[in-house]
Amino acid sequence: MSGELLRATNVSQVFGGLKAVSDFNFYINKGELVGLIGPNGAGKTTAFNLFTGVYTPTEGEIIFGGKSIVGLKPYQITERGIARTFQNIRLFSELSVIDNVKIAYHSRVKCGLFESVFRLGRYFAEEKKIADEGRKLLKIFKLEDKINETAKNLPYGAQRRLEIARALATKPKLLLLDEPAAGMNPQETNELMEMIRWIRDEFSLTILLIEHDMSLVMGICQRIYVLEYGAVIATGTPTEIQNNPDVIKAYLGTEE
Amino acid sequence: MGKRRNDIIMLGFSLVLFALLQGAISAKLIGSFWTLNLTLIGINIILAVSLNLINGYTGQFSLGHAGFMAVGAYVGVVLTTNFHVPFIIALLAGGAAAGVLGCLIGLPTLRLRGDYLAIATLGLGEIIRIVIMNIEYVGGAAGFKGIPHHTNFAWVFFVMLFTLFFIKNFVNSAHGRACIAIRENEIAAEAMGVNTTKYKVTAFTLGAAFAGVAGGLFAHCFYLISPNSFTFMQSFNYLIMVVLGGLGSITGSIAGAFFVTFISAALANWPEFRMIIFALMLILLMFYRPQGLFGYIELTNFKIFDKIFRRKEARQ
User: Fold this and answer.
1) Gyration radius from chain B CA atoms
2) How many angstroms separate the CA atoms of A195 and B24, rounded?
3) What is the distance between the alpha carbons of residues A82 and A73, in angstroms, rounded to a whole number?
4) Strand A174-178 and strand A82-84: pairing?
5) Residue B267 in contact with residue B277, Cβ under 8 Å?
6) Residue of A nearest to B291 (CA)
7) What is the complex's ipTM, to 2 decimals?
């Protein structure tokens, strides 16, 4: 648990006249579990999109594992080791559960086009390896009896789990979870909390999550960033955040 | 290795089918009209399956297939007629030329999405046709005459078999999965490490190359080809085949190509009925089975195959 994995310095993102994120300063250490909270429209998902290359920041620098990732395409950032899930689930909905996971192994497939089409050399060994690893991963997420089911037919909670499994299949160092508990009931949220902690230890991951469910955020995050109107208004441990007057103001408003 | 066994079974079936059809043609059981139409069915299967790779598997709506076919056809006929190059090399050169053009066109246009891409590719297909029409060397609007009659049923059948083999294996590999992921959700595909631009262009290039080869086969069926054989109506025809069979199913494209070509031939004397029938068929299809006749299903993953062979294995 040492060393900085990701650091954003003075990052701003402007959409036309709107500053979605302004002067955003952020860091996360290896092995940490950090939360990003804030009211709707505060810029949390924009921050994720900046880290994963969906947007290129208007200003500022993002360093991941010692190197700048500003300007890289999302797939290149995935290759470097940042994986994510989406707020509104984005599975490959017409494909089977196992195929969803297999696609995530993409950047590590060594078979060329020619080898794949003519089924030469490594093709069968590699396909088998992907299928085996995928199945192992799905077992962890209790999806092993559903591997041939179409993703869109899974219950909501299972779709969320599949999205996390798929993100892990890219072998990330940093996992970004965008509202993983959205739409879950309290019991499912509790299970999810356990699972997030467990995967961090099992896969020695660093995790950053966006979440509105305060029991989850306060329960598992070591540090929390609070965003409002695109700016960080507070950082600290869960207890510090809970007692921070600015945060209380942002969430509950001021007493008249 | 179940997959490999399935391949061998399908190859066996294909060879038996070829022997039967070729035998019937040689014995004159099938007349010259239907022989030509069998050949055209084969060519249309190549075109439909290659269009399906772009439209059905990768989800990029292209309407320029006739243009790529024209490039392959003209490159092929110039090589065989004017330079007396062997047929196979002319076919490959036509495919390569169409593929290179597909790649060059794909790089800028594949940034567009949905209807915009459809309109852009439609326009490009027409540009190719108009350009050919204005090249005097290939006969301009009057067409290219004196093409040697190289294409026969056997050529078409084996090129078709190779196309099916190639595209089936492609879509079932990691590369094909990347293309399908783009169709399903481009943002998620990119987030999972798929270089979406690269795979869109790859699918477009491969599709164009096979269309070029099919164009070469098509041109060498006739004494004359003219730019009017490659209008956007042709592109629509291939699209009808793909949509009818099911976007994303090779079996579907085969069935679609067979069906559309067969109906066209059977109604050769009543061409006006043909369009009415196709239009009606498409409307009914959109009402009752919008995913196409086969949807995403392939003949080889029908359960019946597995059941037959599992029973045999159990007995042994």
Assistant:
1) 20
2) 65
3) 12
4) parallel
5) yes
6) A94
7) 0.90
